[in-house]
Amino acid sequence: MLQGKVLVAQGGGPTAVINQSMVGAVLEARKFRNVSLVYGALHGVQGIVNEDFVDLTQETTHNLEMVAETPSSALGSTRDKPDLKYCRQILKVLQAHDIRYFFYIGGNDSSDTMRIVADEARQANHPIRCIHIPKTIDNDLVLNDHTPGFPSAARFVVQSFLGANLDNRSLPGVYIAVVMGRHAGFLTAASALGKKFPDDGPHMIYVPERTFRMDEYLSDVRRIYDRYGRCIIAASEGIHDETGTPIITRFAKKVEHDAHGNVQLSGSGALAQLLGDQVKEKLGINRVRGDTFGYLQRSFIGCVSDVDQREAREVGEKAVQYAMWGDTDGSVTIERTGYYSVDYKLMPLEAVAGKTRTMPDEFISDSGTDVTDAFRLYLRPLLGKAMPDAFRLRHSKVAKVLG
Amino acid sequence: MLQGKVLVAQGGGPTAVINQSMVGAVLEARKFRNVSLVYGALHGVQGIVNEDFVDLTQETTHNLEMVAETPSSALGSTRDKPDLKYCRQILKVLQAHDIRYFFYIGGNDSSDTMRIVADEARQANHPIRCIHIPKTIDNDLVLNDHTPGFPSAARFVVQSFLGANLDNRSLPGVYIAVVMGRHAGFLTAASALGKKFPDDGPHMIYVPERTFRMDEYLSDVRRIYDRYGRCIIAASEGIHDETGTPIITRFAKKVEHDAHGNVQLSGSGALAQLLGDQVKEKLGINRVRGDTFGYLQRSFIGCVSDVDQREAREVGEKAVQYAMWGDTDGSVTIERTGYYSVDYKLMPLEAVAGKTRTMPDEFISDSGTDVTDAFRLYLRPLLGKAMPDAFRLRHSKVAKVLG
């Protein structure tokens, strides 16, 4: 085992359980005698190049456990997506601080950073173990049955649709909710598990794995509305036309871009507004409401899956075990081994890095606007214990007197 | 005691606990021997004039209990605000069905309907007890310490801001969240209880009880952003300028109206968008995100205050007891009798009907953009048990090596 310091960092969008992974890694690392100190980098790779380190060796176990239960990255995060030069700077700092174990909790971009840093370290002949710990509410990491953070975000989406459906049933109209997910529709698809009775919403689910056609959308809304007097739609923020152009770009007047030059999809209610306006204008339906779940879905406190918590903790712990007892870099992955149980593996960084997983065809119905039972079976155990449930009155109608 | 049928109905925007009141009234009414049957009206007063009644005498206690725990109006609701003619039609139907006890669960409009119906019944010499059962997430009924539905919605708002603050701390920027409340700022003010550490958001809270000035808003955002590198804003959908014109009307291009001719405030992300655009354009801050809590805040399942559940149940039960053992119409109100305990009273319908309560001055800070400790004390017990809490790492900084 290498002798030296351990560094833990968190990257990308926060999740409700990302601190479980951080605490899992920190507590496990503190057990090893070859580890001199356990550092955390503030705001991910940005904190590394700025030498913004904190010493987590001197934090109580008790407070670490409380932080583990707190959503969002306690060390701070970053949207920086390092290039080769940036990664060389990272390595320089790791060397200067005698860091021999580097754990980065994040999504595709973070795994790609780890791949480059590990390559550079090998070439520079600096022995260091680089382990990527998976995290993303989008559930879009390859080789993983699912990723920590997704189950809790999915649970929030399910509970939101359960409530939204009850609300819409009480005051009928068209209701559109926009869910996060640029390329992968898993989180939007989760809305299907908010459906209990056959006439419950969501009645249509639009994911980025399928082409969105405005005319088909409008005729679907018309059909459902005429049937039930109401209609609930779940739409991924990343839905796009046949050329791959996001719907938000195609119909909106003004488009914003994020730090990576991608079209800004979250943080505004523009898509829900647009989809609602089309229903009002083209179908003449009056009561149309749109919500954008926004940042609530990834950091909501008090709506966490216990399965997600446990697994997020374990991937952090396993990462340290792989780093100490194994002798390779890699990305920790989740494999489903039973219904329901999981085990973890260490995959080569280049097998995971920078790749995007989307929903397999078997999870999407032929109509393209619903999920299959295979998806329902896949998701159900991830949501965890004590899922709220919705009940209806089963009443007999009273005969009219006045008529 | 009058001999005949009981009718229960639900009106206005749903809440997470409105079914507790309905079930409280139904179960209590089913105990009385002078009650022949217990009816529910589908979609409030609209269901009454259409004779859309269901028989709740033949529903199991068990299922009623499950429905009580389910958010949103199980009988359906309505936005109809009956005038005199409409109320006479209501009375005609009540007479035709031999209804002698009428319980309407709702807000100001519903209490006003009850006032008119009760007046008309007296004039028509039709003995009937009309009891209004309070409900509204806006917390804007006079003579009530608070109203059922508000505590659970407030809890959702608190938990949302707890999470949003953690998210914003991890990826800093300006974050704006728009909360429901046309005239009363209670629900938006609840966001203050999501604040734990001194630098936590929300940093500014804008309620309809104070005039919103765009220039002051922008300079406040500038000040906080320069200090903390981030800024979180809670804004009521009803914020308005010095003439009372909603900000959404004043700066938006297109304005929609609801069924009552009021400017449509909910169901779109327009205000959050507007407040965010101003920050980007006038202050040149790049990362600006806006969320509108929308319908989630009033019907979210699994984030309910146990205090709210209990009280909502009791106002329903008390309503029946007042109707049976007393001999007057009225509106059930909640009075705070200890810290924390409540008792219920029956107030004359005309004392509550159609009146709007707003936040008292003692709940709003001198700055006009924060709450006072009096408000924090007021709200805290209403949120109920097992409120989630947020924890931070207490780490010591590591000295730089490269510098």
Describe the structure.
- The structure is a homodimer of 403-residue chains.
- Chain A contains 14 helices and twelve strands.
- By secondary structure, chain A is of the alpha/beta class.
- Chain A has two domains: 4-148 and 304-352, Rossmann fold; 150-301 and 360-383, 3-Layer(aba) Sandwich (Rossmann fold), CATH 3.40.50.
- In chain A, strands 3-2-1-4-5-10-11 form a seven-stranded mixed beta sheet, with helices on both faces.
- In chain A, β1 (4-10), α1 (18-29) and β2 form a beta-alpha-beta unit.
- In chain A, α1 (18-29) packs antiparallel against α3 (61-68), α1 packs parallel to α12 (306-325) and α4 (84-96) crosses α5 (108-123).
- Chain A is elongated, with a radius of gyration of 23 Å.
- The N and C termini of chain A lie far apart (85 Å).
- The interface between A and B is large, with 85 and 85 residues.
- Classified by CATH, the class of the largest domain in chain A is Alpha Beta
The figure for the number of domains of chain A is 2
Give the mean pLDDT of chain A. Answer: 95
Major pleated sheet of chain A: 7 strands, mixed
As residue ranges, the low-confidence spans of chain A are: none
Q: Biggest interface and its residues per chain?
A: A-B, 85 and 85 residues
What is the number of helices of chain A? Answer: 14
The gross shape of chain A turns out to be: elongated
- The count of β-strands of chain A is 12
Helices and strands of chain A, in order, run as EHEHEHHEHEHEHEHEHHEHHEEHHE
